[in-house]
Design a protein that fits this description.
Elements lengths: L12 H17 L20 E3 L17 H12 L7 E4 L2 E4 H15 L5 H11 E6 L7 E6 L3 E5 L8 E3 L7 E3 L14 E6 L2 E4 L3 H6 L11 E3 L2 H10 L2 E4 L5 E9 L7 H7 L10 H10 L4 H5 L6 E6 L16 E3 L10 E8 L20 E11 L9 E5 L4 H9 L1 E11 L1
Helix pairs in contact: 2-3
Length: about 425
């Protein structure tokens, strides 16, 4: 959901190639100031993200949900790997394994779990048959786990007096540039996104500029309309979702791309400006603040220059490896440093499943009161704000529990990745 990234059809691409060398030169002079990098740190040398553990440092491998849903997620990663050349290499920190080896790793884990083994056998099996790689942020229990979900909002496929806030597709004039085609030094970096202005490639319009352009719909005819601009912003944060039309139909809205401007968290802006206390920060707290301060919505929402574009789709929600996400089994990490599609193991916290989340105890929204859990997961997604070895985003689903858990989740824990010996 977060972010099933697909390359849009780009008009004028021949012209972009002709301008490429000029653009590269400008970026080499001051690449951090280009303004169209999807992440301002993407050109910096990454610290090691994974370390291979000796068996005496392995965690205790148990699953708090008794593997419910995990085999479904595992099947999705098999779909991903089976689309790739078997000889392609998958990086685990300093080590590499072929896609063929990853398929075999998943198949042997799948066959073992289908036998419904007891917990003690699971722990022994993983220790005997798998290498374990730990996030380098584990040492101080500093992997920050947040959550995301698939929301449902009221919307329409045509605008009217009620539905006035457009969901834009990838604009016709947005271009993507893969710098890796010009130099190996850019291998693994995000593509640049911008637009052509005369004989130059310049940053694409920011969120504020797009919102203030009355004719932007000519470049990006809206795919749907929402009744609330706050809903639109939160749909961007989740990456995809569903809209319920006046005819009571459900339409799937999927991630299509971004404007390439740097992502800046409005939650951090509200904390820094002492509008919301850090210990009270959550998606619900942000929504409440925005609804209570309509005169300052532009100020806060426009703080984040990044804007997400959408498309109408079928199925999903999908992750960045284009497979369906599984609640509490699919996670999003930094795709540049962690192995796509790989099995993982996390130690974090989750809220209990109350009969009615809205009637949960008052402290249920405080992650410190949540129960510790350990879960086997699959690395199947990424996100603009998920950067570095110390970040992971757990997909929570699309129901009320998912909304509640994702809205409050802000928990430190540990993260591991597994591959067959």
């Amino acid at each position: 959901m977060k972010k099933n990234k697909q390359t849009p059809v780009v008009p004028g691409q021949r012209r972009i190639r002709q301008l490429g060398n000029i653009f590269i030169a400008a970026c080499l002079i001051s690449i951090a100031g280009c303004g169209i990098l999807t992440d301002k740190d993407q050109i910096e040398v990454q610290e090691p993200a994974l370390e291979k553990l000796t068996s005496d440092r392995y965690p205790n491998f148990s699953d708090s949900m008794h593997f419910s849903g995990f085999l479904t997620a595992l099947d999705q990663s098999l779909l991903y790997y089976n689309r790739l050349p078997k000889s392609r290499m998958i990086e685990f920190g300093p080590d590499q394994y072929t896609v063929g080896h990853m398929v075999e790793s998943l198949e042997i884990l799948q066959a073992f779990l289908e036998g419904d083994p007891p917990a003690s056998d699971v722990n022994r099996f993983v220790r005997e048959r798998f290498h374990v790689y730990a996030s380098t942020a584990n040492e101080k229990n500093q992997v920050l786990f947040t959550g995301y979900f698939e929301p449902t909002y009221r919307g329409s496929l045509i605008p009217d007096a009620r539905f006035q806030y457009p969901l834009y597709p990838v604009p016709k004039d947005l271009v993507e540039i893969d710098l890796a085609k010009f130099s190996d030094r850019y291998q693994g970096h995000d593509r640049l996104r911008g637009r052509v202005n005369g004989n130059q490639v310049v940053p694409y319009f920011s969120r504020k500029q797009i919102n203030e352009m009355r004719d932007f719909y000519l470049q990006a005819p809206p795919v749907a309309w929402l009744e609330n601009r706050v809903d639109r912003f939160f749909l961007e944060i989740q990456g995809s979702g569903r809209i319920r039309t006046p005819e009571d139909e459900i339409v799937r809205i999927q991630y299509a791309g971004t404007n390439g401007n740097p992502y800046r968290a409005i939650g951090r802006y509200l904390i820094d400006n002492q509008e919301i206390a850090q210990e009270q920060m959550s998606m619900q707290a942000i929504r409440q603040w925005l609804e209570a301060n309509p005169h300052r919505r532009d100020e806060v929402l426009h703080y984040n220059d990044s804007m997400v574009f959408f498309r109408i789709g079928v199925g999903g929600p999908f992750g960045n490896i284009n497979v369906t996400l599984t609640p509490l089994r699919s996670m999003a990490t930094d795709y540049r440093i962690f192995p796509k599609g790989a099995p993982g193991f996390i130690e974090t916290r989750l809220p209990e499943i109350f009969p009615a989340v809205l009637n949960a105890p008052e402290n249920a929204g405080n992650p410190d009161s949540w129960q510790p859990v350990s879960l086997f997961v699959m690395n199947q997604d990424t996100g603009g704000a998920i950067r570095g070895p110390g970040r992971a985003d757990l997909f929570c689903g699309s129901d009320e529990y998912a909304r509640f858990a994702a809205g409050h989740m802000n928990v430190r824990g540990r993260m591991y990745f597994l591959v067959m010996k």
